[in-house]
Amino acid sequence: MSRREIISGNWAFAEAMRQINPDVVAAYPITPSTDIPMKFSEFVADGKVDTNFVTVESEHSAITACVTAAAAGARVMTASSANGVGLMHEIFPIAGFFRSPIVFGLVNRSLGAPINIHCDHSDSMGERDAGWIHLYCEDAQEAYDTAVMAVRLAEHDNILTPVFVCQDGFITSHGFEPVEMLDDETVKRFVGERNARYPLLDVKNPVTYGSFASTEYYFEIKRQQVEAMENALKLYDGVAREYEAVSGRYYPMLDAYRTEDAEFVVVVMSSAAGVVKDVVDELRDKGVKAGCLRIRMFRPFPFDGVAKALSHAKAIAVLDRSLSLGGTAPVVSEVRSALYRASALIPVQSYVFGLGGRDFFPQNARDIFTDLEKGQIVGEERYIGLLE
Amino acid sequence: MSGTVEVRWHGRGGQGAKTGSAILAEVLFEEGKYVQSFPEYGAERQGAPMKAFNRVSDRPIRKRCSVQNPDVVVVIDSTLLESAGTTMGCTDGTTYVLNTPLSPAEAKHRLGLGADVKVITIDATAITLDEFGQNRPNAPMLGTFAHIFTDVPVESFVNHFSKKMAKLPEKILQANLRAIRRGYEEAHVG
Hints:
Chain A is of the alpha/beta class.
């Protein structure tokens, strides 16, 4: 029997971890993801999981322990945020290359300095080329569901790639709302046992991890990771549909809200999508053909799906919750690329919002749609709610 | 109840605004509502003014920004009445729930509110000092909410509290349950 409870995004993720019952969790706490290892350590202490919970002295050690455990053949999970994610940076590409199917609860928080505990996406965006799958969740329910789904995605034989399950720090991680959770047995059956193909501890079939690859091989190995990402794009929907069959909830890689005939579309990720969808309904009632495209899967990036969802648009706004200082913000850069690939030269306005937890209100979304309706599209990025 | 009801709590760190907002959400959830409960996080210090929020609706809630134009303002520390921006973003339709010995008319005068604004006052501090010798205004104020969410009887708050706090010593639990009921019965609605 599934059950509904009022819990936070962090607790929802930790509850999914309890039900997944991973072999190894190695973690070092940092705000706002601290609740995840904290709750999980209670499950360990209470004997509710069989997990080997490894407490370490830094995030760098946490992710290193995760990678090595995954290479040994274990099912592994962890969580972190902000500069904790930054400290893991060195090891992330190794996890990607080792094809370590780690499921990682990434609770988005701004990268310091200045020190700020609140949400933006600068931490995960810094890892977008590390060879991990990136999934961004709108609410606590989705964080729970995605944690369960991600195990299957990460461990799929033709994907074997670690997954970041991102949720917005404080907004989602510390907000309490109803979450429906599956019963333990359903989750257990859905994730199954990890059946590692090349475990380091299989001494009868010895393999090497972390060997030197000279110029003759390095490029080819990277090409295999490209293929894994392409496979993830193809295989994602099958996993999402299987999850729908057990939960009744379906999460496509793109959450296209009233975009079928939309002339003005706001593209956004994570929790801010809620406000945009509310404003879309408001505008639709007034006869404006507004829509919202929430990108849930950022790596691999669903170029074709994005171009298709935006194909009717006259003008598009892309909202980034991080900067690429001196460059183009990450989400808008991919959206423009998707449109160019599809030869759809639709005007796109780039907006940066919500840095360091700056709130995003319905009026902000209304103003953005007004810009689009009036055709006020400029080459430079605009900033939402900035005091200047 | 039509649309979404947005609640803003004003309290001091450690006083229970966050817990109050969480318990309110749980009670209304059990009554079949869609709910959110979230505090405003800053540099948390005991005694510093802080805010917490609720959204309550008959439909799923998508909005996750903080509450700008509250339908209900709750002040659990009477020293914050005038100093914490308690009327900010409010309209004439906003209802106030105030922990204060003042009458609704006196409170309206203090806050510069019009005579038509709905103000509910409850001396929650006095009730809890009387019931268990501590200033913990949360419990009575929960009872007062039965005047706001009129489709939820005060017994729903009592029942939820007794389930959630079942581990409290019986004497303290009973004192809290009495405090919740008194929060409903002794409220002044004006």
